[in-house]
């Protein structure tokens, strides 16, 4: 199968799954440029989300008018500026009016800051982390990369939470027992390379039941994690090597570079979501294609429904 015909099949499957699910009420924080506003409206038109736009109303309507975006039937909550937009969007989660957040044109840090406030935020005991859900034409399944956007230099405990978040997401998307490759530059434990020590510790934590639901192995170099041939050449015998679902990167810099390399050099698409809060947070970029934006929404929708069912709350209905 050639690259062009394979490129979007994984995202198409995610988007198609949402057809049988009720749209998720979603607060869109500060959608004050054409990209973020159009992304929310496109997802609403696809019946994935029921957006509530939170931001300066006059500015939102001006952007819509200038770009031919129809806001008929969409609720808008006026806010003074981007910080106010973030606060009011998070407040909608706390009151139970929405089951997801979507980042608009404000900076990611502004939204995260409102989410983690002690008295008014929506954080949980789990650390916040970002997951890229990659549709890579040359890889046979979805590839999850974490964390490439939130945690700059995660500690061992942070990485345990990051892995747990990613495992839960992969399971919600249908991967029964996700295979987690803990990446480093080498596949041997080396006291001079801290990421290899963390990898060994995380594997032992999984053996002891401190991390559940997935199969962990590491340290693994990237080639050994995604290529059976490379793993065999190195003599690595592992249920994860060459067949990883999740790539846990050492730090934000390496993860961000990896995701962008796949996007711009391997024609991959990257959907993005933040986990660890009371609700999933949809992160989109101005560089995202329409399909990638819809895939980010689809991931949040599927995850929201799965979490509700797992918590015994029943299906989300309109």
Topology:
Blueprint (H helix, E strand, L loop, with lengths): L2 H4 L2 H9 L6 E6 L4 H12 L3 E7 L1 H11 L7 E4 L3 H13 L5 E4 L4 H8 L13 E7 L7 E4 L9 H17 L6 E5 L10 H14 L7 E6 L1 H5 L1 H6 L12 E3 L3 H14 L3 E7 L5 E3 L6 H21 L8
Task: Assign a percent range to the helix content.
Answer: 40-55%
- Number of distinct beta strands: 11
| Total of helices | 12
Distance separating the two termini: 40 Å
The biggest beta sheet is recorded as: 11 strands, mixed
CATH superfamily of the domain at 125-276: Isopropylmalate Dehydrogenase
**Range of strand content:** 15-25%
Give the overall silhouette. Answer: globular
Commentary on this structure:
By secondary structure, this protein is α/β, with parallel strands linked by helices. It has a domain at 125-276: 3-Layer(aba) Sandwich (Isopropylmalate Dehydrogenase), CATH 3.40.718. Helix content is 42%, strand content 18%. The protein contains 12 helices and 11 strands. It has helices spanning 3-6, 9-17, 34-45, 57-67, 82-94, 108-115, 156-172, 194-207, 222-226, 228-233, 252-265, 290-310; strands spanning 24-29, 49-55, 75-78, 100-103, 129-135, 143-146, 179-183, 215-220, 246-248, 269-275, 281-283. An 11-stranded mixed beta sheet has the order 3-2-1-4-11-10-5-6-9-7-8, with helices on both faces. Helix 2 (9-17) packs across helix 12. The radius of gyration is 19 Å and the shape is globular. The N and C termini lie far apart (40 Å).
């Amino acid at each position: 199968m050639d690259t062009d015909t394979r490129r979007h099949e994984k995202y198409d499957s995610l988007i198609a799954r949402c057809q049988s699910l009720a749209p998720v009420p979603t607060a869109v924080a500060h959608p004050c440029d054409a990209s973020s506003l159009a992304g929310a409206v496109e997802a609403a038109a696809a019946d994935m989300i029921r957006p509530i736009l939170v931001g300066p109303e006059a500015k939102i309507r001006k952007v819509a008018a200038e770009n031919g975006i129809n806001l008929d039937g969409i609720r808008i909550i006026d806010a003074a500026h981007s910080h106010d937009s973030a606060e009011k969007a998070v407040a909608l989660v706390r009151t139970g009016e929405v089951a997801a957040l979507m980042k608009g044109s404000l900076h990611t840090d502004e939204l995260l800051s409102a989410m983690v406030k002690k008295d008014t935020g929506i954080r949980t005991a789990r650390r916040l982390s970002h997951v890229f859900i990659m549709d890579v034409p040359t890889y046979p399944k979805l590839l999850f990369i974490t964390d490439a956007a939130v945690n700059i230099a995660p500690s061992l405990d942070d990485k345990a939470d990051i892995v747990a978040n990613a495992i839960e997401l992969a399971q919600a998307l249908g991967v029964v027992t996700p295979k987690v490759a803990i990446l480093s530059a080498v596949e041997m434990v080396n006291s001079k390379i801290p990421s290899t020590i963390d990898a060994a510790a995380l594997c032992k934590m999984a053996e002891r039941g401190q991390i559940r639901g997935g199969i962990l192995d590491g340290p693994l170099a990237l080639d050994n994690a995604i290529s059976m041939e490379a793993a065999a050449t190195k003599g690595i015998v592992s249920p994860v090597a060459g067949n990883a679902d999740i790539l846990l990167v050492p730090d934000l810099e390496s993860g961000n570079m990896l995701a962008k390399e796949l996007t711009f050099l391997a024609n991959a698409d990257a959907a993005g979501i933040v986990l660890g809060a009371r609700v999933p947070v949809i992160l989109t970029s101005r560089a995202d294609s329409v399909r990638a934006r819809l895939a980010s929404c689809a991931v949040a929708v599927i995850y929201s429904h799965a979490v509700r069912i797992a918590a015994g709350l029943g299906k989300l209905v309109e």
